[in-house]
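Dear colleague,

As promised, here are the two records you asked about, laid out in our usual form so they can be pasted straight into your sheet.

NAME FIELD: protein one
SEQUENCE, THEN STRUCTURE:
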Amino acid sequence: MTFMQSSRRYLSIVFAALFMLTSLVSIQAQAAMVGTDEVIAQQQLSVDRAELKGMLEDQAVQDKLASMGVSPDQVDQRIDSLTADELAYFNTQLDEAPAGAGGVVGIIVLFLVIFIVTDMLCATDIFSFIHCINR
């Protein structure tokens, strides 16, 4: 064999291997279209979270939660862990609640229910008198 033939053979093997490697990588990097409803649902989730956190900025609500031993960080973590359905339900309940002092009490009761449910599901351990149902 001459030098040209052996170098062609070597290059063809290298290029074939390179082609196979790039083909395998491109198979895993496929993208798909994102539907409008998925984008809207994701945006609605962030809007619902922001709306719920905005309602908690009321000083009376923060004072009442602090008197119960619940920190604002715990509240934020709980809100971030809520599903889209739970957030939508809580926001509709808060929108239907009367304004003023009744609304503040409603928000506090709502969060107490959230805390109790997450304590029962072993997600948190805020209240010592609530026992986990998953154990």
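NAME FIELD: protein two
SEQUENCE, THEN STRUCTURE:
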Amino acid sequence: MLIINKLLPQGAGLAAVLLKRAGVLALPFAARQHHEANLSDGEGSELGLRLPAGTTLRGGDVLVAEDGSLLRVEAEQEPVLLVRPAPHGGQMADLLRLAHQLGEMHVHVVAHDDHLCVPGDGELAQWLERQGFALTPDVAPFDPPALLSQLPEVVAHQHSHAAHAGHVHGPGCNHDH
């Protein structure tokens, strides 16, 4: 089994020629949320994913195996729901409120100009229908941004600046950003 223990977010630092040579590992979103897993590369090779706890893989990330080989992560096609406002009287503001509520419920969401995309979960679909939203099942890559609760460095950064009210940030302010 080939062990993968290094992640290069979005292939940071790799030359384009190396990215082109990298193998592809297509995974559904649920599998990309596991930092430790035994996987198959689709060509019969067994892979042992051993990344730091809390790691979520994103499309475009590059994994480095212990032998130096590279695998580019892709979001696999999977069932999703396209959520739109109610057909009669629904408004885009309803989607904004829904996106906020789903985020509080720790449901991953991808926001588009005229709809939301959420996991194709049957219970979630029933709940959304009861709320009056129009649903369209689809099959597409699902690669949502991280929830704010998964970004401790962003939250910590926001809190650390609360004490700097009135402080202007710019060249020469003498602290890291």
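A couple of things worth noting about protein two: Residues 150-177 have pLDDT under 50 and may be disordered. Helices lie at 16-21, 29-32, 92-104, 122-130, 152-160.

Best,
R.
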